[in-house]
Amino acid sequence: xxxxxxxxxxxxxxxxxxxxxxxxxxxxxxxxxxxxxxxxxxxxxxxxxxxxxxxxxxxxxxxxxxxxxxxxxxxxxxxxxxxxxxxxxxxxxxxxxxxxxxxxxxxxxxxxxxxxxxxxxxxxxxxxxxxxxxxxxxxxxxxxxxxxxxxxxxxxxxxxxxxxxxxxxxxxxxxxxxxxxxxxxxxxxxxxxxxxxxxxxxxxxxxxxxxxxxxxxxxxxxxxxxxxxxxxxxxxxxxxxxxxxxxxxxxx
Length: 252
Prior knowledge:
Blueprint: E1 11-14, H1 19-24, H2 26-36, E2 40-43, H3 51-61, E3 64-69, H4 79-89, E4 93-96, H5 106-125, E5 129-133, E6 141-142, E7 145-146, H6 147-154, E8 161-165, H7 166-171, H8 176-182, E9 189-192, E10 194-195, E11 201-202, H9 211-215, H10 218-221, E12 225-228, H11 236-249
Parallel strand pairs: 1-2, 1-12, 2-3, 3-4, 4-5, 5-8, 8-9, 9-12
Antiparallel strand pairs: 6-7, 10-11
Helix pairs in contact: 2-3, 3-4, 5-6
């Protein structure tokens, strides 16, 4: 561990964590996140607003939108429109958050790798980068093959990176540092989500994940943004404040 800290403009909030507040007051929620100290956000769900409106809300709050989650189905159903929306938002990454259940097989992941190759080319041509966000089941092993590794190995790095969800990597029985070291430069964004002793979600810093050890490989991994996420916070604002403070003070 050193005295390195996360750059202030690298600490963000993935807005899925704040969905109840957003549904009630989207622009007010963004302003409050900025007051806590967050500098960037990842969009997940529009709550009835257009990309133009959300960009305006973020600009007014002086928050940078770095990415948006877009369903896998959009790869074949108006991918050009999805890319245009992320450009409108001002994002640099377009993120597929999960694969359909029917693709969670060796053949399915190989099919997805092909789709990501083509989608990644279109994203690159639009000045964006395609990322995939993982869940625990993505690290299942089938006939000795880790499903997630198919995407790492079969899609060129410039066409597919990853928004690695640290909780779900550990939930899937794997070590994030292994991936940072094995596939350097593939992980520009993280979901920083902690794990309680019983395996449930926890505010960043209140659980058992060793973030300092993980972030020590940040340079090798290519990490640019650390996005807080909590899937089911007891109090979303308390969680947002606690998690931000942990990341702002963390040494790694």
